[in-house]
Each structure stands twice: as structure tokens, then as C-alpha cells.
Design brief:
This protein has four helices and four strands; from the N terminus they run αβαββαβα.
Length: about 110
């Protein structure tokens, strides 16, 4: 896929230093962007790359296909929903994550 910027460059995953959740979270300003509308966020960043692991790059829009909420009141809500969505979409590459998170009904 043709990305608007290098997924491993400073605009993407900062030279592979950031993956998945962190790549998306750094696109929002905790003090200025909330409440955050998902459609507007995807409209602005949907074609941006998100490195999931050392082999996989997908778009922000691909991640948001698994987000159920339409809006987030604050950064914590946003961050938690992204984590749920990435796990539900099998986009969570962290080995052992199931040991640190509860069932989906706990969210």
C-alpha cells in the first residue's frame, strides 16, 4: 500500500520505536482533542500507517473498524477502547497480553 508517510519514519512509528496503540495515541492531544469524534478522527488519519509488529503495517482505518464507540470523552476512554478493539480484531501482537487484561466484558 502507498502510505502518506513512511510507517517507520518520524511521522509513523518513529523509526520502529512505537507500535500499534502508541502510534495512534500520539495522534491526539489529551488537552485539546476531547471529546473526540471517531468519524472525524478516521477522516483525518484513516490512511496513516500503524505498525502492529515487525512484519505488519495496517491503516488507522483498519484498526477503527473494530472500535464500537462513536465518540470519546477523554484520553483514557479512547485508550481503553483502542486496546479492546485491537484485541478483538486480533491486532494485539503483545505476547502474554491475556495475562494482564481481563475478559472483554470487564471493559
Amino acid at each position: 500500500m502507498e502510505w502518506p508517510h513512511d510507517p517507520d519514519g518520524e511521522q509513523g512509528s518513529e523509526g520502529r520505536r512505537k507500535y500499534g496503540h502508541a502510534v495512534i495515541a500520539k495522534k491526539v492531544n489529551e488537552d485539546e482533542d476531547f471529546p473526540l469524534d471517531c468519524d472525524a478522527f478516521v477522516s483525518e488519519y484513516g490512511d496513516h500507517p500503524v505498525r502492529i509488529d515487525n512484519k505488519t503495517v495496517i491503516s488507522v482505518a483498519d484498526v477503527f473498524e473494530h472500535v464500537e464507540e462513536a465518540e470519546f470523552a477523554d484520553f483514557i476512554e479512547f485508550h481503553q477502547a483502542l486496546g479492546r478493539a485491537m484485541r478483538q480484531g486480533d491486532l494485539w501482537s503483545y505476547e502474554g497480553a491475556e495475562e494482564f487484561v481481563g475478559t472483554e466484558s470487564e471493559a
